[in-house]
Amino acid sequence: MSSPIDIAIVGATGTVGTALVEILEERDFPIGQLHLLARAASAGKSISFRGRNLRVRTVEAFDFAQVRLVFFAASEAVTCQYAPQARAAGCALIDLSGGLPLQQAPRVVAEVNSQVLQGLAAPFQLTSPASPAIALALVLAPLRPLMHWQRLSVTACLPVSSLGREGVAELARQTSELLNGRPVEPRLFDRQIAFNLLGRVGAIDAVGHARLERRLAEELRQVLALPELKVAASCVMAPVFFGDSLSLVVQAVQAIDLPAVQAVLEQAPGVELIEPDDCPTVVGDALGQDVAYVGRLRGGMDDARELNLWIASDNVRKGSALNAVQLAELLIKQGL
Amino acid sequence: MSSPIDIAIVGATGTVGTALVEILEERDFPIGQLHLLARAASAGKSISFRGRNLRVRTVEAFDFAQVRLVFFAASEAVTCQYAPQARAAGCALIDLSGGLPLQQAPRVVAEVNSQVLQGLAAPFQLTSPASPAIALALVLAPLRPLMHWQRLSVTACLPVSSLGREGVAELARQTSELLNGRPVEPRLFDRQIAFNLLGRVGAIDAVGHARLERRLAEELRQVLALPELKVAASCVMAPVFFGDSLSLVVQAVQAIDLPAVQAVLEQAPGVELIEPDDCPTVVGDALGQDVAYVGRLRGGMDDARELNLWIASDNVRKGSALNAVQLAELLIKQGL
């Protein structure tokens, strides 16, 4: 085991930050001092780690020279504000927000493109991709040798926890109001989210794409090392607390060998293939699990070059915190 | 105004049957006698129509010779059981279940392919397509002159009411149990539906497609009169009470003229186009409305031949009962 290293987590009180702490503990990560950081509003809380209660401190006052590795599990804005300080202090950075440019902080999924790290030198900067991109990359990467892709179309139904604790609280509040026969005033979303689906997640750019849709496509292309891959992505906010549900259509150039696809997915790391007559869901299958569940594997109704499937994945664990910790483990192997 | 005709509704107590009664009343349909029918279990209830309470009678004991037009708003099984009696009695049939074959009972969306009726002779048999097929046809039909399609990919997020009142009751029950901290035992679905998404709706055939996915593709091809159209369809059950939410990717052979698409959809019958920076939802926009709402109209991120959009539509009204009544009105014009 490597010698222990001192670590900071920026955004430690959020859903992903909390999961990071849990996973660091579960995996027996070689930590010296763990510094939990948040903006002033959330500082002062305590979080349990290896039998001790760690106090969350303000990121504003933190001296990054105290640590060698920083996880950014905060918003893009907070990440972009404090990443320069961490870099200047010589820390390795693992960003979960997507705030750092692709060129500066390559997107890496541990099971898929960890070879990227071999081309990097300290101080390291890596980004753990958006959760749907991680799940898609885990499923698609092992299929690359089997087919040449023309295009991917994905509809990603995201849970309210992708907006953090506030999203979870808002869905719970709205649902409870409605079941008690009271009218709902949406606060966090611009429409009612309880018993409803929102066809837009976050702001839309000048030509109509959401930032997350762009991020998903760009990260997939980088992780799969297919810069020309065509991706149609639609992100939808669903009245679900946790877990990404992805409906994927793969169009290949030639007819798809379904038994070969099935055989490959049965062996793929980080993937659990469900029997064709069943279908995985986030609640009951994916939540709390470290693999992306795949179901509804089928060809096209009218096109032999088409592959359809459904993915259910934990957006907080496998889709965020676990991959980030796996990246840290890889950096340690590389002599962080 | 035509002379009044006697009508029966089979499945009058279900969500769609109830909406049929409402719409017949709203539209001042020329009805003589209205016979409300259901299986024995639901018979005996009363439903208000034009200020009178009509008693629901058993379909088993009904003599179809009493009426000239029958709406089948029951299950496929009930429809297939009683359609032959109605036919033998010389009735016109309008099926909402999809139980009758495409050749026997053509799929018609009033605004799209009503010209089909000109080739038919009495006794008439028509099918009102599945609700997502109606919404898609309304949006796609006016675009046909603008582009030649290579393929459509749709992820249809369906509400629990697509399974009728039992679906609605089950989502309400599960949600309430969970909010009260009690464990959920799924009854109607094989997994928890509250705060979850099911990637499978109904039974799956030998090659993995759901019956509804097949129906959607076949009906779209027939309504749009494009027998070669390639359709990838995935139906998802969402924790939503009413309204279909559809994520659609259109692939055309040539680059798409987005301003022209927008101009056409602004004028299209049965369609309401929402501003690009907003996005319609079923709750708050589509429910109770007689149009399909379209939003998130945008090109591809990396392909000028791609069109993406989002549709929110009332599955019970516009998606079922209203179109069926519109078909009946067309039949009356044709001398039913």
TrEMBL record, chains A, B:
Checking SUPFAM superfamilies in the record gives: Glyceraldehyde-3-phosphate dehydrogenase-like, C-terminal domain, NAD(P)-binding Rossmann-fold domains
**What InterPro entries does this protein map onto?**
NAD(P)-bd_dom_sf, Semialdehyde_DH_NAD-bd, Semialdhyde_DH_dimer_dom
Any Pfam family hit: Semialdhyde_dhC
Q: Which domain of life is it from?
A: Bacteria
**Gene3D superfamilies recorded for this chain?**
Dihydrodipicolinate Reductase, domain 2, NAD(P)-binding Rossmann-like Domain
Q: Which residues form the Semialdehyde dehydrogenase NAD-binding domain?
A: 6-120
One GO biological-process annotation of the entry reads:
amino acid biosynthetic process
GO molecular function per UniProt: NAD binding; oxidoreductase activity, acting on the aldehyde or oxo group of donors, NAD or NADP as acceptor; protein dimerization activity
Which family does the similarity line name?
Belongs to the aspartate-semialdehyde dehydrogenase family.
Protein name, please?
A: Aspartate-semialdehyde dehydrogenase
